[in-house]
Amino acid sequence: MIFRGPSVDIPDTSLTSFVLRGAERYGARVATVDVTGRGRYTYAELASAVRRAAAGLRARGFGKGDVLAVLAPNVPEYPVVFHAAVSAGGAVVVLNPLDTADDLAARLAEAGARLLVTVPSEVVKATALVGRTAVAEVVVLGEADGATPFAALLADDAPMPDVPVDPARDVAAVLHSSGSTGHPKGVLLTHRNMVAKALLTSLVAPTGEDARVLAMPPFHHAFGLTMMMNASLLQGTTLVTMPRFDPEAFLRAIQEHRITHLYIVPTMAVLLARSPLVDRYDLSSLRSIVSGGATLDPAIAALVRRRIGCHIAQGYGLTESMVSFMQPEEPTRPASVGLPAPGVEYKVVDVDTGAELGPRRNGEILIRGPQVMKGYLNAAEATRDVLDDDGFLRTGDLGYAEDDGELFIVDRIKELIKYKGQQVSPVELEAVLLTHPKVADAAVVGVPDEEASEVPKGFVVAKEPATPEEIMAFVAERVAPYKKIRQVEFVDRIPRTPVGKVERRSLKERDRAA
């Protein structure tokens, strides 16, 4: 059974021409500004900077088939760099500044990037990568020894390069899957994919011309780049960029900039729901919050609604298929991830046989739509494994649909714990652990066991002294016998990706090392 969202027409155009189509009309409205107030670009200035930087790139021989890399936190210049490279006919690979030098070198080499744009604080790391990759020039947003100032690219006031684009085939961006359960892969997103992501976001989570978004989720992640950055620019929204997350700075920015819309990950929702810091700041300007990247606890969402007094909803999508589902403004089923976005189709299939399943039956979720990636970079076999002949993406997520198509996520299939043949969901056990009054944070993984194959092990961050036996007994009282946690280890923190997903691979490696 295939469930479908409303129909929608995706414009057959290049990404930048679509996202910045209203820039001239928005004119003097602020497009991007740093949280400190520096680095301000109006829409007119942003569009001009994109044109001039694209011309500067073309003058350097950068064009169709070339790749530019960006290694930077969220700064006002980020959309200028990104759209200049795309306008010049190239693709952009976005990199995480927190990654190791070896990881960055591998991704640059894999993508074949020959230009690397960074910030002054990352120039030493960036220049060290030149000899290890195809990167021939490092460009810095500002000034730093050993790098070309970005201002040099803006010196040419030539017209926007007229580069022919096949929106359905030409790649605009290369992002990387989270790697929370396996090795990260380069995700190829075409102009059409990226146009669809911006358009669908504007339909399911609209902001508007008078809105102000605090750009906290990193632009190097699909959530930050495709939903927050491009969709906001499409709608004439002001982006207030923050380079890194700090709870007090986050709350202060909402108050001082009168932020109307937030894109957050669940860990930020917990802050808004429970932290006493919230009471020190005026957050009354907030109208709407979108949570993504990982599952949002409905109880936490309810606390945020009551405390902040604004709408909060979660969406669902992978790096490969961002903007696939979104909860309605007033969710009637708070635990769901909502209905399929316009143009999106999905089905739930039996994990073993692939047979299509009807409502309320658990299976793997498969998604099809204009937002689904072209494939993985230099990985034809991995692409064939996840994209079937009908264009459906195998998400690797276990879930079920209601009769009306509203979707519920149960867990990652690969993360399910096999205890004596029974399937145990780590997410379910984590939700129980987080209700314990002495537990601040928790994660659960399966660890090898000679008799049971695997047993659930909890990693717990405690608010106050507790014993493993106390924690295990608490869970045992609330779950079926085969779901009981059999081991507990106390840790200082739970390792998570930038969007809040538990890095289960790290926890399993920690257990093996112990």
UniProtKB/TrEMBL annotation:
<dbReference type="InterPro" id="IPR042099">
    <property type="entry name" value="ANL_N_sf"/>
</dbReference>
<dbReference type="InterPro" id="IPR020845">
    <property type="entry name" value="AMP-binding_CS"/>
</dbReference>
<protein>
    <submittedName>
        <fullName>Acyl-CoA synthetase (AMP-forming)/AMP-acid ligase II</fullName>
    </submittedName>
</protein>
<dbReference type="GO" id="GO:0005524">
    <property type="term" value="F:ATP binding"/>
</dbReference>
<comment type="similarity">
    <text>Belongs to the ATP-dependent AMP-binding enzyme family.</text>
</comment>
<dbReference type="InterPro" id="IPR025110">
    <property type="entry name" value="AMP-bd_C"/>
</dbReference>
<dbReference type="InterPro" id="IPR045851">
    <property type="entry name" value="AMP-bd_C_sf"/>
</dbReference>
<keyword id="KW-0067">ATP-binding</keyword>
<keyword id="KW-0547">Nucleotide-binding</keyword>
<feature type="domain" description="AMP-binding enzyme C-terminal">
    <location>
        <begin position="428"/>
        <end position="501"/>
    </location>
</feature>
<dbReference type="Pfam" id="PF13193">
    <property type="entry name" value="AMP-binding_C"/>
</dbReference>
<keyword id="KW-0436">Ligase</keyword>
<dbReference type="Pfam" id="PF00501">
    <property type="entry name" value="AMP-binding"/>
</dbReference>
<dbReference type="InterPro" id="IPR000873">
    <property type="entry name" value="AMP-dep_synth/lig_dom"/>
</dbReference>
<feature type="domain" description="AMP-dependent synthetase/ligase">
    <location>
        <begin position="22"/>
        <end position="377"/>
    </location>
</feature>
<dbReference type="GO" id="GO:0016405">
    <property type="term" value="F:CoA-ligase activity"/>
</dbReference>
